Amino acid sequence: MEAVALYTFRATESDELSFNKGDMLRITNMEDDPNWYTAELHNRKGFVPKNYINLRPHAWFAGRISRGVAENRLRHRECGAFLVRESESAPGEFSMSVSYGDHVQHFKVLQDRCSQYYVWDEAFSSLNELVEFYHSNSIAKERTVFLRDPEQFRPHHAHALFDFNPHHPSQLHFVRGDVIELVDCSDSVRWRGRCHGRVGYFPPEYVQPIYQYQ
């Protein structure tokens, strides 16, 4: 899970994590304290106040569920349907469950000494990047399985978290609080949306997707 910093925070205790407004944090634990999350930034770990950040949830992130629950959710789903869950055996670590069509396969998401995430050889700085990579590269070795986002999990609208003032005519202007219709959010760097009758591109970190489950 990732979160964008809404405000700058300066740690006052040794187990806290300092960050600046706009930083992208990796959230590793949200369960132990109602007011503080555990996060990583630039290979440093510590507690962060949850009211200083805004989570960027994804429909594929299931949180702390068991292997059995993951299998029940994915059973009989199309090949490539998946979810990422917090590891049952190792708090702060993650597992990925993927439907192969005829069964559900589980992968442990590992981290190297530089806090890069990996399943096979390729390593990534975030779970988002890892998931995006396996949308177009097979997660399986013995067959071809691309991760797929079910249509009902794709966000169709988003709330604007900040004002966005375009620097180019192709970009979309909006202000905090606007609801944006998402036209294309397949790119991790820029999304395309419609707001106030105009269509244009904008950075996804400026908005909060609205997920509607069918």
From TrEMBL:
Database matches in PROSITE patterns: SH2, SH3
Under SUPFAM superfamilies, the record lists:
SH2 domain, SH3-domain
User: Which terms are listed as keywords in the entry?
Assistant: Lipoprotein, SH2 domain, SH3 domain
In this chain the SH2 domain maps to 60-151
Keyword Transferase carried by entry: no
Top-level taxon in the UniProt lineage: Eukaryota
Q: Which Gene3D superfamilies match?
A: SH2 domain (3.30.505.10), SH3 Domains (2.30.30.40)
Q: Ranges for the SH3 domain?
A: 1-58, 153-212
Matching entries from InterPro entries are given as: Grb2-like (IPR043539), SH2 (IPR000980), SH2_dom_sf (IPR036860), SH3-like_dom_sf (IPR036028), SH3_domain (IPR001452)
**What protein name is recorded for this chain?**
GRB2 related adaptor protein a
